[in-house]
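Thread: Newbie trying to understand structure tokens

Hi all, I'm a second-year student working on a class project, and my supervisor (Dr. K.) asked me to get a predicted structure for one chain before our next meeting. I've only ever worked with sequences, so writing a 3D structure as a token string is new to me. If someone could post the tokens and maybe explain what I'm looking at, I'd be very grateful. Here's the chain:
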Amino acid sequence: MARLLAKRSNSVLFLGNFRPEQRHCRWLNNEGRVSVEATVGGKKTTISSGKFACLADGAVVVKSGNTSLMVTAVSSTSPSSTYTILPLTVNYRERASAVHGITKNFYKKESELHPSSKEILASRLIDRSIRPLFSPGYAYDTQIISSLLEDDGLSHTGVMSINGASAALTLSDIPWNGPVAAVHVGIINGTFVSNMLSKEVLDSPLNLIISCNKEKIVMLEGYGNEISEEVICNAVQFGIKEVQSLLEVIGSLKDHSKKPLRDVELIKPSDAVKYKVHQ
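---
Reply by user tm_fold:
Sure, no problem. This is what the structure looks like when written as tokens:
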């Protein structure tokens, strides 16, 4: 028994000291781990990195209440040979285990199931929030995956995924003109509120999601029940103010990342293409 314990101890010691510069062993110690938090609308959002998906270019876990999800960002190091538009793929997936459930479909593997309408809409929210911030001519295949880990049914997972994607890209060496942050704005008892609970959405005449950086609005999506233009403008201004603290903590993640931005070659349209476009 003593011999077995000695072998086990040696193995653990070996792994813990095995080329610490290699990212696949980084989870064995606290090197590279970082955690930041911000409070928006009275709800604390925590963004942590360095524990999971260490082989991704950027990966974070976003937690709000008892809802958490992991977002990873990966981009190719060589340009796409079939480049026409920005080759960005965004996937948001909800696992049955996140709500303490088991898949009841014929296909037991969740990867074989088609995404639900909620997953498709959440993926589009993320895409429209980050796509405009890539430089024109960026021809490198890029993938953002948001996986729901646990869900208490109270937080907007689409908004959390936008913030997670922004944080993952900020931590990575992928060239990107971020960060961006998102907030969910509504009206309760005549007062603007941010990051509403799911049950409060039913009582709000306005349901608005705002994505912005420090300079401008990037994406707006929502609906309202006979909302005036003035109220919409005030809601947007309220959301921009609310999201500033989150923008600051996401931007601070770059200080913890030791990876310089990779050198990329931006593809410029030829004169023939420009001529056809202007015709």
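A couple of things are worth pointing out once you decode it. Residues 2-16 form the longest helix (15 residues). The domain at 32-103+113-257 is CATH 3.30.230.70 (Ribosomal Protein S5; domain 2). Feel free to ask follow-ups in this thread.
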